[in-house]
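Reading is simple: the token line describes the chain's fold. The lines below illustrate.

. . .
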Amino acid sequence: MNLMGGPELSIVIPVFNEEAVLPALVERLRSFADRLTPLITEIILVDDHSADRSPELLKRACRQDPRFRYARLARNSGSHVAILAGLAQARGECAVFLAADLQDPPELILRMLDLWRAGNHVVWAVREQREGVSITDLFMANTFYRLLNLLGEVNLPPRGSDFALLDRKVVEALLKSTGSHPSIAGEIARLGFSSAQITYTKEKRAAGDSKWTLKKKLTAFADAFVSFSYAPLRAMSYLGMLFSLLGFSYALLVIVLRLMTRTPVQGWSSLIVVVLVLGGVQMMMLGILGEYLWRTLEAARQRPIYFLEDSSEVDAAADAQPQKVERRFGT
């Protein structure tokens, strides 16, 4: 029971161009919140700077039901930043984040709450099966989490999770420690709080199309590895030592053959191949170093990772202001 009188559960949902699914989402959330009574619940809908009618639909939901709250980011920053923005607004003893496409059933929160009450600070909802996903996307997702667990310094559910419940302590720690390029699942795992898992089947999208493009997948992949793994830097060191050893060995061979046979060593074609290969490897190494340096620069600048352009809190404050009365004198 929340002794402060605030909500006990906060549900955070990032939204980006989801006007097709929002009516069904709002209705399902409203019905689910009714089932949670007498648990006090707030639902925070974070608009990641949508370009469709999503803001209008989200504001309408807030006007119709006081349990809904709304915030809009000043620019499109990605779902992970939107989740952090929602968690910063959350007031509950625990908070849940999930996608807006209804692939993650909100009803699963009931089981997550039971594990939270049992003393777990983090409850992961792990995707046991995924409906409506191509074999290629499934392979890429599974490979990503396996590589991150193998090479990174975090321990994530092997099949991945973008649906989780966090205790208030975890929310506060996450907001204090997250960097400029957040990867939510990795950031939570890095904190090390006690956790539990439940499995579920990720359903097909209720409506609309996925906004998870190949570019966003590659960006998330790079952000996660740079944030939680030094493996690329170690690989560069090992690769550099290997090529140096091969280069010195080849140079020694050339010298020995020249002294013993008195004939020049032929092989201009192989030499060009070696130069091109080494040049490509060096460029790749510079690119990896650039990724780390760029993120170091972003962290050093200490800029906020998002700004709110609009929120229901602003609207409520405006409504609470006393109305200006125009006074007229005379008869």
